[in-house]
C-alpha cells in the first residue's frame, strides 16, 4: 500500500548550484538514456535526499497501513478470510522491510527512519489516518486502496533508482494478489444479504473522499517537481494516476451495484478525463498535517510498540549475543 | 468408542492451534522488530491452517463444517489448554509460550506420524515439516535472549511463571487409554518426556535455568474449563461471522 501525490516538496534548480556541473550532466545523461542508478554511483545530494524522503514515506505507509486492516485479522469471518488477510497484512509488513532496506542504501538507518516516523517528522499515506469501522471497510482497503497503490507503484517501478525499482517489482507482484482478495471480499458483500450490501455501501460512502485524496492534490496546485520528474524520481502526475484509477475501477464499482457518493463523477468521452467534485482539499491538508481522525492513535501504537520492544533490540546488541546464521 | 476418542484428540489439537494462532496474529504491528511481526504471522498462519485441517477431519467424521465449529462454539466447548488462551503480554511471555508450546507440537506430530489412523498420520507428517521452522525460530531467540544480560532476568521470570501452564499442555484426556490401545497416539506422558528433554537441551545452551518441573500443572482446559480470557477472544473472532452465520462472507 502506498499513497503518492503528497510525497514531494518544492525543489528548485538553485539547490544544485554546489554540484559539479560535469558530474551532474553525466548523471542526467545516464537517466535520459534510461540507465538505472545504483547506490554506489555518483548522485546529486538533492536526488539522494528526495529519494530517501520518498522511499521512507512509502515504507512508513506500509507499516502504518497494516494497522487498520490488521485489527480485522482477529475478526475475519471464517477460515478462508482469516488466513488470506493474515497473509496479506504480513506481505505489507514485508514490503516495509524491503523498502527500509532500499532507503538504507542511501545512507539513513531504519532506526532513524522509525524515530522520525514516531516523532511526526516524516509523513505516510494520508488514507491510513481514517478508521476502519467495519469488516467492509477492511475489504474496501484491500481492494481499492491497494488498487490505487498499484497504479502509483507501477509508475514508480519505472523510475531511475535501481534498489527502489527492484523492491517495487516484487511488491507489485504481491499487491496483485491483494487486489484479487479484496475484490473477492467486496463482491461477496455487494451481492450478499441486505445487511452485507448495506455494510459495503456505507464503507464506499466513508472511504470515497479519502480515496480521491489518496493520489494527492490536483496538478495545478502541486509543488514544483520538474527536476524530480526529469530525474525519474516522480514518474507520473497526481492527476494522471487518479484518472487511471477512475478509469480502471469506477466501472467495476458500479458494476457491483454500489453507488459512489459523487453526483459529478463522470468521464468526458472526448478527452477521456474524469470529472469529479471537489473532495475538500482543506481536509486533506488538515489530515496530512496531523489533525485527522486517527493520526494520534496510529503513531501512538507505533510508539508503544517501539518502547515495548526496546529491551529486545538492546539485548540483540549485547556483545554476548550469538549470531544465528539465516536459513536461506 | 474409538471414534469418540479420536474426535477428542482432534478437538484438543485443533482448538490449541486455532487459539494460539489467533493470539500469534495479534503481534501484527506490535513486534519489537519488523522481522518478528512477520515471523509471528507465519507461525499464526501455519497454526490456523493446521486447525482447519483437523476440523476438516472432524467434519469428515460427522461433525459440523470447520467454520461453524470454530466460529460458533462457546468457550466451555473448547478443549484447548489454558496456556494458549492467555493474552500475548510482552514479547518475553509470547516467546516463552512459543518455545514451550511449539516443542510440544513438534514432538506431538512426531508421535502422530506413526498413528494407525492414516489421515492423522499424513497430516502430522506435513505439520511437523512446518513445526520444524517454528522450533528453529524459538531456539534462535531463546539463545539470543537467554545469553544477553539485558534480557536474562525477564526470560527466566517468564520460564518460571509459564511452567505450570506449559505442563497443562499434557493434561491427559479422559479417553486417552483408548487412543494408546488402538495405536492412534502414544499418549501425553510419553510426549511430555520427549518435550522435557528438548527443553532442557536448549536451555543448557543459555544462561537460563530449568524451571521447577515438579510444579503442579494448571489443568482443566482439556475438560472445557478455561480462563476468563477465552470467551472474549471467541467473541472477537466471531464478531463478523455471527452477524449472519448462514451468509457467504
Report the helical percentage of chain A: 55-70%
* Structural class by sheet pairing and helices of chain B: mainly alpha
* The CATH fourth-level homologous superfamily of chain B: Ferritin, core subunit, four-helix bundle
What count of helical segments of chain A does DSSP give?
Answer: 11
CATH topology of chain A: Ferritin
Q: What structural category characterises the helix and strand content of chain A?
A: mainly alpha
- Strand segment tally of chain B: 0
Q: Distance between the terminal alpha carbons of chain A, to the nearest Å?
A: 27 Å
- The average pLDDT of chain A is 92
Attribute tags:
heterodimer, A: 328 residues, mainly alpha, Ferritin, two-stranded antiparallel sheet, 2 strands, 60% helix, 1% strand, B: 249 residues, 9 helices, 0% strand, globular
Describe what you observe in this structure.
The complex is a heterodimer of chains A (328) and B (249). With 328 residues, chain A is an all-alpha fold. Chain A has one domain (13-316): Ferritin. Chain A has helices at 21-32, 45-70, 79-104, 110-118, 135-156, 162-190, 194-213, 226-230, 238-255, 281-288, 295-316; strands at residues 266-267, 274-275. In chain A, strands 1-2 form a two-stranded antiparallel sheet. In chain A, a hairpin with a 6-residue loop joins strand 1 (266-267) and strand 2. Chain B has a single domain (2-243), classed as Up-down Bundle (Ferritin). Helix content of chain B is 62%, strand content 0%. Chain B is built from 9 helices and no strands. At the A-B interface, helix 2, helix 3, helix 6 and helix 11 of A face helix 2, helix 3, helix 5 and helix 9 of B.
